[in-house]
Every structure is written in structure tokens, then in C-alpha cells.
């Protein structure tokens, strides 16, 4: 007898799982509840959409609710917020945000893909018009509308992580004066080595962006609209537009209230099962054990969301396959394509291949005990691809050969 599959969340993880389930169980009933108005969009392109580098926001939508229904037979219900999971009765409570109708939906199997939300720091004035976070297509549309309705000369970015630097690059391309304020001592400090931070600091300054590190924000000032950012050291920066990019937090409240184990995300095993093995979870909202690095981690990436979602779908369909994918990420800024493979935590040495100080193409290999554990490749696709194989193969490399661009990178595999 066909089962009824219910998925909470329609972004990358939710729709990847839904598509996989539909292929494996073509006759099943499949329902996806999504609180927002969009599903399955390319979040990495939003900074470039708000700056009109990407002109049409619809190009960021990988899948629409209409196509999901008509072409794949997936009952996608946008504007529906799930407010409760009752694992005892196998039902969820749902609020139709348009009509206010409250319903209860039964399920046979359940997948939680609630994702994460942008951190909104408790800074005085954060509610001013012109202060935004950037996480969803709706966020991007609000920023685009604000730019269209106001004369924006000065844009200030709070946070020097990937989203902050990507947004800075995009707004700089629009001709705005852009300032990045980062409370840590260097940009990208949480995720990269100093060598990478120094490179991106240099490039952004060459492009005309002002970067200030070791600076905390005390308040946002203005009447109705934001006009300036006041820092904890007393410095002030003009700001017609502020984008806050200081991180995200996983949406775990539903799972927590349902009694599932939560620890910096919904805790799942290698098959994406939660502490209630009748419920699986995938994506930014989950914390899993990475077998390659032997650590528990919550990953924030499209790659993790889609790969883990497919594992979750297979578990729900009775065809378990352990999740063992190598984490990888990317970031586009100006003419730079940064491709990252692996997790660099715990490295003891960095080997740079290429001219980091004078060019815009190089790779940084992170080593632990002489073995490559991660690579950051800037406009170096071959190094990225070979790096992935070095990492999964746990290859001990010759450091001099690794640093020497005259030696083809592929030779390190033999």
C-alpha cells in the first residue's frame, strides 16, 4: 500500500528529498509544506540579483511550486507554516498564512527540512528601514525595492564572512561606496586561514571596498531610515543601506518541541534518522557525524542539503545508504571563483600554490600531519578537483611538489 510522505520545508533539502522520493515511489502521496512563497532557489545568486548583475530573479528558482505539481506530482503548499509535530499520532498542525485556516495533516513518514534563518543581532536601531538581513528571495526583493526607491550612496555590510563579502562585491559593482565592518581581527576568520583572509582583504580594497576589522557595532542611527552606523569604539560610518550578515541559526524549534534530540541542530545518524527513527531530517537544520573527519558538525551549504536529503529519502523508502559525502562549498566575488573542499579545522600547516600576493589565482592546501584535509582554490579548478581526491584518499603529499606550479597537480595523485 502506498505511503503518505510529508516534508516540512521546501528549500534545497526538502525539494531534493521530494524529487528523490517521487522517483523511488511513483505512486506515493507526497506533500511539501513551505512557510515562504518560494521553493528550491539558488541563494548564492541573491547578492548578484540585488545588484542587477543577474537581472531576472526567476533565474534563481531551480523549481517552482507549479512545475513541482504538474511535472513531478508533488503537492507543494506554499504559505503554510507547520506549527506542531505530534509523533504519537503521526500528525502535524499547519497554519495557512493566507487564510488563517488551521488544519491537521496525517503522515506515514515525515522529513524535517526546516533550514536556518539569519541572525538578527539585538543592536539598537536594527529595526530601522534600510537595515536588512539576506537569506531568502523575499529578503533580496525587499533590498531591491529599497534600492529602487532610495538614493543609495553608502552601503555598510555588518560581517566579513562569505555572505558579507559577496554582498559587498555585488553592491560595489553598482557603484556604491561600500564599507565592511567585522568584529573579529580578520575577514573570514571563522572559516579560513590567514593567507585566504589577507588575499580577500587585498582584493576588496583594490576594488574600492573599505574593510574595518576588530570593530563592533553599537547602534544604527537615523530617523525612520538608517543614516549611519555607530561603532563601539565611537567611529561612525554613513549608511543609506545596511546588510547584516553575521551568521545563521538552525530552525529546530519544531523538532525540539516534538521531543527530538537537538544539539546545535537536529541530531541525525548516518542515515539521516532523528532520535525518533520514524522521522528523518536533512539540510542546514541538522547536526550529523562526519565519518571522514570523525566529528559532529552542522554544515551550511547547498551541497550538504541536497546530498543529505537524498540519503534521507532513501531511508524513508527503505533503501538505506550511509551519508559519507565530502563537504564542499563555493563563493563568487568579482572575477573570483573560490571553491572549497573539505573541512580545515585542526590543520597544522598551509601550503600555498600560486602567487597569492600579486595574482587572482592560487590554491591553499590545509595539511595535518602531512596529509591534505582541505583546499581553498581561487580560480584554480584543477587544484580543487585534485584536492578532493587527495582529501578522500588521505594522501600524504610532498610539500615542495604541492607548492610548485611547474609540476602538474595531477602528478600528486600517483
* Major beta sheet summary: 5 strands, parallel
**Strand residue content:** 25-35%
Computed CA radius of gyration, to the nearest angstrom:
22 Å
Average pLDDT level: 94
Number of helices: 10
Q: Strand order, main sheet: write it out.
A: 3-2-1-7-19
What's the total number of strands? Answer: 26
Low-confidence stretches: none
Structural class: alpha/beta
Distance between the termini: 52 Å
Overall body shape? globular
In helices, the fraction of residues equals 10-25%
What does this structure look like?
This protein has 414 residues and is α/β, with parallel strands linked by helices. 24% of the residues lie in helices and 31% in strands. It has helices spanning 12-24, 46-50, 65-72, 137-149, 162-173, 194-206, 253-257, 302-316, 381-392, 399-403, and strands at residues 4-8, 29-34, 75-78, 80-86, 91-96, 102-106, 109-112, 116-118, 131-133, 154-158, 177-182, 210-213, 217-222, 226-231, 236-238, 241-244, 248-250, 266-267, 279-281, 286-290, 295-297, 328-333, 336-342, 349-354, 362-368, 371-378. A five-stranded parallel beta sheet has the order 3-2-1-7-19. The chain has a five-stranded parallel beta sheet with strand order 9-16-10-11-12, covered by helices on one side. The chain has a five-stranded antiparallel beta sheet with strand order 22-23-26-25-24. Helix 1 (12-24) runs parallel beside helix 8. The longest helix is centred in the C-terminal third of the chain and has 15 residues, at 302-316. It is globular and about 65 Å long. The chain starts with a strand and ends in an 11-residue tail after the last helix.
